[in-house]
Amino acid sequence: MTIKDYLWDKKYLILIYTITVLFTGTVISIGESVAVNQSNGLYVIEVSMLLFAVYITVDFIVKNKYYKRLKEISELEGLDWVNSLPIPASSEQRIYNELLQKQYQAINKKLSEYQSKSIENREFITMWVHEIKTPIAASKLIIENNLDHPSEEVLYSIEDEIDKIEDFVQMTLFYSRTDDFATDYIINSINLEKVVNECIKRAFSSITNKNLSLQLKNLDLLIDSDEKWLGFIIKQILDNAIKYSAVNGKISIYAESHQDEVTLIIEDEGAGIKEEDILRVFDKNFTGSNGRKYVTATGIGLYLSQKIAQKLSHLITISSDSGKGTKVSIHFPHWNDFYDV
Description:
This protein has twelve helices and seven strands. With 341 residues, the chain is an alpha+beta fold. A five-stranded mixed β-sheet has the order 2-4-5-7-6. It has a two-stranded antiparallel ribbon with strand order 1-3.
């Protein structure tokens, strides 16, 4: 509030005071020629009191009207009453109105984010329940069809389906933690080969069932990342490579060391990705033309992986030749550049 605003708010009081002073001055000036008696003094006091009473009455009527309107709209449900606030009659009321409007906008923004997140969570849970039914049903079917002649191949098939269930459960856990990511990660210097081998071990059944060959090269490098979250990212990319590879296919996993970064590359010779789908593979729930051919595609894995990678200051890039294979690269900036990302 400026002095100008303050004086404008007190304009009626200043007006009354000015009239009173002028009136008193007039009576005194007259008194120079005519003796001022007691009745003249009482007259000045009575007029001053009358003017003050008029000011108080008018001020009460104006403010009472404003406060009555406030009371009426405060009884309305919801928050839309903020848009019905009466026109402020003073700078103070205007400031309060502006504060209420800002709070209203902030609350609406929070509600919108909450509703959006609630819808997103509901969609994810619906997708998750639908997808997890598939490996459960497949496991039951495998067991029922092989009760009389179990074999090592059957056990691998069951283990593969159990691994899928475990992956879905893990995906849910990681999905639920992404909003609190800042309190759930530790950046350390970790061995890339160790993380990759752990992911391969968890995907062993799927690799065996498709009789895939793995080519590992130049992985004994140190990178700056969080081992748990990075393991999730690599496992998601590896799962996609396995899923879209043909039986007896090949997957190459290797790293390249550059001046400013280390790059982990997972390359398959599978179905590949169509050119029109490349730019959307990281969009939530996007499965593309390949996803429609494979019922286990959820459109969540790469979305989560890129989201987590960005929070770790990594970057995932994809190049592909439809029908010939896909190359996924994870870029890790060196420690010296890590805080500049």
